[in-house]
Amino acid sequence: MSGLVPFAARRQVFGVPLASLGLGVLLLAALLWGAWTTRTLLALQSREVVTVELSGLIGAFVEAEARSGADPEASQRRVAAYLEAIDASVDAQGRNGRTVLVGEAVLAGQARDMTPIVRADVARRMQELDHAAR
Fold first, then answer.
1. Is the pTM value of this prediction over 0.70?
2. 99 dihedral zone (left: phi>0; alpha: psi -120 to 50; beta)
3. How many other C-beta atoms are found inside a 10 Å radius of the C-beta of residue 118?
């Protein structure tokens, strides 16, 4: 009778046919992949999309700095520090589970404007920098 059963069908691991074991591993892998994909999609769906008007923030600061009459090197250092503060503030907003978009790039939609919050955070950072420089 054993001559009628193909050799591949007779291979077993712990009494389970190798084909059944392979199918079980594939089903388990598909189940784990499905659970991971679902979790990832739900996490993306819960992210909040916000905007920040960067050109307005930067433009207003550069304009005020130009009118201040400070020496060009000091002005250049303050602009560089301001840009670093904006970068840090926007980065902090992104770490809080938000997707931050440049406001000028958003054509339509219901994205919350975080410009006032970023402006306040940058002002605080610049004050800390001024106090540290003294």
1. no
2. beta
3. 22
